[in-house]
Design goal:
By secondary structure, this protein is of the alpha/beta class. The protein is built from 14 helices and 13 strands. Helix 1 packs across helix 11 and helix 13 packs across helix 14.
């Protein structure tokens, strides 16, 4: 089976498992787990922030960032298709009591889009308090948020005294594709979330980084939300292994995604915007129901996800070999021919 559903489907390699088995651990709730403490120090440093916190998931990191920078009834401005709107179980409303406003369309937005999304400062409007961008943007097909737009959004957010959060679940991919450091990419933002369980191949875990005081508040929330785990250095060891060993190879996932996109784009009834394939995600639009192609491809040995009525998503990752791309594309073509 060639599993292209997500870069979350990877399994820890033997060397990662060894690092996990040998991890020095302690009760992390007492602050006693040396491996967790080392990971948090390293992540703060790598992301250029005062402090970082090891959390269970990207969802938890995003929601903590929201909780720490908003009050119930506030509005959080995000791009079209943002992860917290689509895939976080309604946590923005259920846990944080906020509502989302969408700026722009297609995932990216400009300062003008942000201004258009901001409600007037009046007693009858929700108070806008936070702007969040996603880099890479998942539903936009792993696209890199253009730097000039980040700059103008940041200037506009500061003018309106709004907090800034970066959902950097796949910031590793941005850094690998552009050569820009993680710290530089995260610098304009108050808080940033990164995930070890996406392209880097760790079994679980994310980090939330930001100002020390805010991260200490997030630590309280992590406890409140039942996410304070004990000898969790076993997982932190996998994350440390992943950050150290699996970042440089991301460029080969990007090359594989490009090759896959080119092959898919050549199939009749399939259209792929090749210029949008910038990292490890390929969105393909097809001229028939996506669910049918997903099922037909699965029967033939390729797994992928439908992300719209006629759109499928395929993601390359470290458990997809270079030699899997050609057969995967052939199976896609066969599935199209059969449905
Ligand atoms: N994305 C997953 C699914 O939830 C859709 C995937 O397969 O791509 N931010 C972004 C941009 C993400 O893509 C994801 C996961 C998250 C946050 C949440 O991470 P987890 O799954 O750790 O809660």
């Amino acid at each position: 089976m060639i599993d292209l559903r997500s870069d979350t489907v990877t399994k820890p390699c033997p060397a990662m498992r060894l690092a996990m088995a040998e991890a020095e651990v302690g009760d992390s709730v007492y602050g006693d787990d040396p491996t967790v403490n080392a990971l948090e120090r390293e992540m703060a440093e790598l992301l250029g922030k005062e402090a970082a916190l090891f959390v269970s998931t990207g969802t938890m990191g995003n929601q903590m960032a929201i909780a720490c920078q908003t009050r119930p009834g506030d509005e959080v401005v995000v791009g079209d298709g943002a992860h917290p709107i689509w895939y976080e179980g309604g946590a923005g409303a259920a846990l944080n009591g906020i509502q989302f406003a969408v700026a722009g369309s297609g995932g990216f937005f400009s300062a003008d889009d942000l201004r258009a999304a901001l409600k007037p400062r009046a007693y009858y409007s929700p108070r806008p308090s936070l702007v969040a961008i996603e880099n890479t943007h998942n539903r936009a097909g792993g696209r890199i948020f253009p730097g000039h737009l980040v700059d103008e959004i940041v200037a506009c957010a500061k003018e309106h005294r709004l907090g800034l959060h970066l959902d950097g679940a796949r910031l590793w991919n941005v850094s690998a594709a552009t050569g820009v450091s993680l710290a530089k990419l995260a610098a304009p933002f108050d808080t940033v979330t990164v995930c070890f369980s996406k392209g880097l191949g760790a079994p679980a875990g994310s980090a939330l980084a930001g100002p020390r005081e805010l991260i200490e508040e997030a630590r309280r929330l992590r406890h409140r939300w039942g996410g304070a785990m004990r000898q969790v250095g076993i997982l932190a060891a996998a994350a440390r292994y992943a950050v150290l060993n699996n970042r440089a190879r991301l460029v080969s996932d990007h090359a594989n995604a490009k090759r896959l996109a080119e092959r898919l784009g050549a199939i009749s009834g399939v259209s792929v915007a090749l210029q949008n394939v910038e990292t490890n995600i390929v969105n393909a639009d097809i001229d028939r129901p996506a669910d049918r192609i997903v099922a037909a491809a699965r029967e033939r040995g390729v797994m992928m996800n439908a992300i719209g009525p006629k759109r499928v998503r395929l993601v390359t990752h470290l458990d997809v070999r270079d030699c899997d791309i050609e057969p995967a594309a052939q199976i896609f073509a066969d599935a199209m021919a059969a449905t």
